[in-house]
Every structure is written in C-alpha cells, then in structure tokens.
Amino acid sequence: MKKLSLFITACVISSLAANAQTVIKPYGALPTKAQQNWQDMEYYMFIHFGPNTFTDREWGQGNEDPRIFNPTALDARQWARTAKLAGMKGIIITAKHHDGFCLWPSKYSTHTVRESAWKNGKGDVLKELSAACKEYGLKFGVYLSPWDRNHPAYGTPEYNQVFVNMLNEVLGNYGPVFEQWFDGANGEGPNGKKQVYDWSLFNNTVLRKQPSAIIFSDIGPGCRWVGNEDGFAGTTNWSTINIAGYEPGKKAPSLTTLNTGQEDGEKWVPAECDVSVRAGWFYSDATNDKVKSLAELLEIYNASVGRNSNLLLNVPVDRRGRIHANDSTRLMEFRRLLDETYKTNLARKAKVSVTDTRKDNPAVNARNLVDGNNKTYWATPDNVTQGAITLEFPQPVSFNRIVLQEYTPLGQRVKAFTVEVWENGAFKEIAKETTIGHKRILRLPNTTTSKVKVLVADAKACPLISEVQLYQAPDLLASPEIKRDREGMVSISCASPDPELHYTTDGTEPVFSSPRYTQPFALPQGGVVTAKAFVDNGKKASPAVIAHMDISPAKWKVLFADGGQDNAGRAIDANEGSYWSTGHNASASYPHELQVDLGETLSLKGFAYTPHRDVHGNTGTFYKYAFYVSNDGKEWGQPVSAGAFGNIRNNPIRQVIRFNAPVSGRYIRIVALEPAEETDHNASIAELEVLTK
Ligand code: FUL
Ligand code: CA
C-alpha cells in the first residue's frame, strides 16, 4: 500500500515537472467564467425610475399614491438606443426601490404598475425594457431593494419569502439577467420594524433562476460595492476580499476595504462603481443643470474602468418616461471622446522585448502584449515575479495614456509596477503604481519618446500581462465654471489655457457673438447664467454650462447657532468649501439648530441644504430635519417642512426641499434632528440656501 502510493506520488511529481513550463498554475482566488464575462462589459447603464421620479424624492416613503406613477410617453427603446449609442453593454433598472413600488405587476404586492395610472394599470416596465435590451443587443439587469417601506409583511419573517417570490417573478419572466443588484439598506417598514434579511436565501434564489447572474452587494458574491457613490475605485484595487463574517449594509467591511479590496482576500469579488450622471439617483427638474461635465465623466471613467472596476453609470428616466436630452447629449459627447482617445493603439507599431519568458510555451509570448486581445498574454517563468516589457519604435511616438491589462482568469497578481520612457539616452520613470487587474489606465503628461518600458517590480506569482497599449488622447477643452460669491457677484473661469468665455443670462445657449466674459458681474437676486468656452476664434467650443441661481445671502446674518456660533457664518457664505459645525463635544448631542435673519421679508418656496463632505466620517451630516419660518425670529410655530434627506449618508450631495405652498417670513431656522451616521454627535452645514423662485 505504502509502495503504491509512493509510486503514484512519484508519477504525479514527474508529470508536473514535465509540464512546469507549459501549464501556468492559477494563483489565489479566481473569477468564475460569469465574472470574467461581466468584467469584460466594463461600462453599462443604471436606471432609477419609480414614484420618486414623480415626487422629486431620493427615498420614497412607501405611502405614495401608486397613481402618481404615470409617465406620459414611456419609451424603453429610447433608453436602450441611448445606452447602445453611448457604448454601454447593458442596463440595470430599479425594479423595486425602497418605497416598495414594483415596476412589474407583481402578484405579491398591491403597490405596483398595475395600481398606477400608467396604461390603465396594464403596463409592465420590465417587459418593455427587457424586450428593448434584446432588440439592441444589450444585457438586462435588475435592482431590487429588500428594504420595502410599503409591504405590510416587511419586518416579519414572512417577508423574506415575499421577497423571494418577487425575485422569482423578476428573474423568471423576462429572459436572461446578467446582474442582480442588492441594496443593503435596511430601514424601517410600515409597521416601524426592520427586517432581518435572509441573504443566503436571496442569493440561492437568484442563482437557481439565473445561474450565471452576477450578484452585486457590499460583499458580492458576484461583485462588490466600491464604498462610495462618486464613481471612484482605489488606485490600489484588488478583486479579492474577505467576506466571511460580513453582511451587506451596516455589517459590511469598511468603506476603505471596499474601495481597495484586499491583497490576500479569500474570495474573488471585483468592484463595481455606481454613480449618477447627474446629482441624485432619480430624475428631478432641479438637476437638469447638474449633469456631469465631460471632464468629470472622464475622471470617473479613468477612476473606475481605469482602476480594475466596472462602471455602472446611472441615467435617470424623466416624468415622460424618457432619458432627458441633457443627459443623452452628454453621453454622446463622452462616447465621441472615448472613441477618439482609443482609436489608435500606438503600441501595435512597436518592437516588443521582454526580460524573461516561458521558453517552451509558444502560446505565451511578447507579441501577445500588443495584439489588442486581452485573452492572449505574456508570462514569466514560474517563481519569477519581476519582469520588464520594452516597446521600441522606429520613429518617436507621442502619447498621454497607457493602458495595461492582466490576464485575470488565473488570478490577480501584480503588486507594483513602473512606467519609464527613454529620454536623453536613459530611462526615466514617469509613473509608479501598484495594482493592474482587468484594466489599468494611466493619464500621463504629453510624452514623446522612442522607447517605453513597463517594469513589473513585484507580483504575488509570475505576472501574466495581456496588453500594453499607448494612446494620444485629444486635449479636452474644459467646461467653464460659474460661481457666485456671498455678495452676489458672478465669476466665470475655465481650466483650459486661453479660452474665450461667452455667456448669456436669458437661458439660451451662448454663441461666439454672445457677450464675452471679462470681469465679475452682479446677480444678487439670482437668475440663469449659461457659459461656454471657445478657442480657435470660435471654431472649437466646450459644452455649455448652465447655473440657475436664487437669491444671494448678501443681507443674511446668523441669529443663533448652537454649539458653534463662531463659525456659523460659513453656512451662509455661498461657499460649499467652508462649513459650520457644532463641534465634536460628545455632551452636546442632538438636536442642533441654526437660525438666520434674511434681512428682508421674502416669499419662500423651499430651501436647500448642502452637507459638508469629508472622507473621514463623522462629518455632522444630518438625516432628519425640521425647517421653520418666522416673521420676528422669536415665534417659530410649526415646522413648514420636516422629514428626512433620503440617501444622504451614502451620497452627501445638495438636498433641495420644496414647500407645499410658499411661506413668507424674514427669519429661518433649521433643526437637525438625527445624524446620518449613528455615532455622530455634531451637526454641520456647508451651505444653507432658500428658494424664492
Ligand atoms: C443606495 C440607495 O439607497 C440609493 O437610493 C440608490 O438606489 C443607490 C444606487 O443605492 O443604497
Ligand atoms: Ca493580448
């Protein structure tokens, strides 16, 4: 017996030795085939749509009348066409958001399209969208929130089965689903209780119906949240992470861990960056001028797809049931920019040499690095964890982007690399980074050289590099920036060198003959300013930028601020970069408040609260508020508005609240009732504004 097993062992060892140079052993956690296909998609669309679209809310309460859901001209083919033309590979829709409203006529809810006014209750958004995706060759995915503020069973054990039934409907009736998006949010339902989610039941249900669906959550198992809603993955980004003992939502790994992954993580759970093309996830008229600029989208793309993550870009559908022209125009401009950037891979002209390669494995060679195919690769021999790739050009080439790809089906390996270029007879380092993964894009200064070297300085196992690409991205003419100071003076600036800035104040798009901006001008009562940057005597122009402004705080004074009277002026200085905070004194706990004298009686239609942004937590951002208006600054009466800023913790952007009817008064008071972060004692405000228009 002993002899026999020794003999078998000897055979295994010798056959391994014979194959040592040809078979490349996988390293660490590995992607499934479905995860590999998913990673190749890179860029796809998110659509937030539902009752919130009609109420101007980020988080609905679940008690909205379902009849308010009534798009007048819904056209899912327009959504799919837009996604396709934008270069996206799929669409994920909010089949059910936290308010519980189902975009399909679920048998397990009475809060659905069936109860809405749309198509007399005969419509089904999932049916229309899945058909449109099929028509346009796009993959179809669904977001379903387990948090349900409408369902009567929510908060009881029965609800988990209700949710499973809904999943079965959505995943069983609309064809293949490439991604199931699970939101970890876990708030109270209609009976005031929170649900204990049965995640393994949910995940098993998804995989039974759609075995190759990628399940998104804070901890996967298919892909993970990147830890912010800004579209930024870590510069170091591992597709591996430890998930044992964690749960989606409050029990998730830290935001930093989600952002960077973990080098020796046990599971393959790559990052996905979810971010909205405009402020807020749902459509609002108020954000039509808050569509991200080309420069912002480019930064997001480079920080997501360019950092080993997929990009899920939200394009909210409006009240007609269509994508708004401001969003689609920007998406098309962005597509053109990407096409122009990645048109010509200069590396394909290079003579490629490498320090080391697998001698007896012809499938693995240096030419694979520049064949434009990320399934073919170059590899060093086993145990060689360093290596250099040199591209030599017969004529010097000019570039400002380098794209690197690792062959990840056998594991993510590279820990450190540098890029060097030949300059005055020697190599000079121009970039030093950590991980590569599926794709790494580096923006570099405009560089002209005849030799480029990529040095893999350290890897967890022999590096497998599938692509080295070089590109010359066109210069992007930056969009102008419009600002107004506390006194109401408007200034327009632009990051590009020497542009001519032209603007209008009547809402029309500026042309080259529109007034030229030369110095700040006064607009204390507010209005609309539209600006555009021109170069080459008007031949080239940036996209237009629009700013809608309300009354400026020139006459305002702080009347009272608890905890932090000294810096309270920063809440009303027309500068989002400065803020008022009550301070971190643990004894001074919630509620907190700020009172302001507007200096004149105004008819107020609402207010806006901009939270203070800081990556370091405990920012004093508050979730629940009450807002009062008074004529004498003494008698405040009942709040004019009270409620919560939906999703402010994950997405701390400017919150716009409109009153049911205008209220006149000279004094305003905002009370912070509950922090966004449970452990916060302080409250803070970067900017408080009133709406008079
Ligand atoms: C979050 C939600 O609370 C937001 O409303 C939005 O749907 C975003 C994509 O996920 O967790
Ligand atoms: Ca290749």
From TrEMBL:
Keywords, A to Z? Glycosidase, Hydrolase, Signal
On the tree of life, the source organism's domain of life is Bacteria
Q: Which family does it belong to?
A: Belongs to the glycosyl hydrolase 29 family.
The record, for Gene3D superfamilies, names: Galactose-binding domain-like, Glycosidases
User: What are the residue boundaries of the F5/8 type C domain, all occurrences included?
Assistant: 528-693
A GO term (biological process) for this protein? fucose metabolic process
At the top of the EC hierarchy, this enzyme's class is: hydrolase
Entry EC no(s): 3.2.1.51
Know the name of this protein? alpha-L-fucosidase
Provide any one GO MF term from the record: alpha-L-fucosidase activity
Q: Which Gene Ontology cellular-component terms appear in the entry?
A: lysosome
Q: Which residues form the signal peptide?
A: 1-20
